[in-house]
Amino acid sequence: MSTVTADQVPSLSAWRNYARNLWRWREFGWFLAMGNLKARNASTSLGLVWWMLNPLIMAAVYFLVFGLILDGRRGEPQFIAWLLSGVFAFNYTATAMTSGANSILANRRLLVNIRFPRLILPISAIIETGVGFLMSIAVYYLIVWPADGVSPGITLLWLPVALALHTVFNLGLAGWTARLAIPFRDINNLIPHVTRLWLYLSPIIWPLTFLRDRGGLVEDLAVLNPMYGILSFYRMALMGRELDTGAFVLALLWTLLLGGGGILSFVRHEGNMVRHL
Q1: How far is Cα 218 from Cα 234, in angstroms, rounded to an integer?
Q2: Residue ranges of the domains in the chain?
Q3: Do residues 204 and 231 lie in contact, with contact meaning Cβ atoms separated by under 8 Å?
Q4: pLDDT digits 0-9 by tens, 142-172
Q5: Which of 244, 251, 242, 47 is nearest to 167 (CA)?
């Protein structure tokens, strides 16, 4: 199977051929993701349950520190539902970035010995992390319904749209980290620090109303955070909030810029990957 090189990508027919090629290799990507899931959880007693426990434990720590001790829940009456929706969604993004880099570094032999569309590797990483995210969403209401009185409503119909936007956004980020993993082999040591800083700068562990006393400029900068629109969309779907049109537009724009840009950049340079491994 042929791959699309940098000089071929601008052609619409080249994109169609590449998409068809990806479709032919879909089962390979699926089995690679499922194999990685099984291998990752084979040595633990709880297995996939850790995909739910890890963000829950992290959310509990943030609630204790930022919600109770620092009173960061000011202005948000349903703070637990707010916090969990943000932590679960951000954890999906953070793990996608790490898994994207690992998808290249851990599959050098496949890249050298088999000719296939390389985007399959970041896609398999997104499938793997997406399974964990869906599991966390499945238990979301079991926690927030008794804690905050948040129950599923008609806005839950927007959840597939939020998932689709978020997944494309994450695939683009995984594409960026996968591409950078070749010239910069230590990227996995850097990603946790980047995502931790991003977490603290995002309206995840604190509501946006927390910034209103600090001036309009600070709040405006927080709104420009790439995760803001996606988080707002999830909270609208999961918590029954009103649709924020501005946040939805921001989610679309960042998905196109970071998501689409990451996918395009990865595909344009995938033909040069093997020679640099």
Answers
A1: 23
A2: 12-276
A3: yes
A4: 888 888 888 899 999 999 999 999 999 999 9
A5: 251
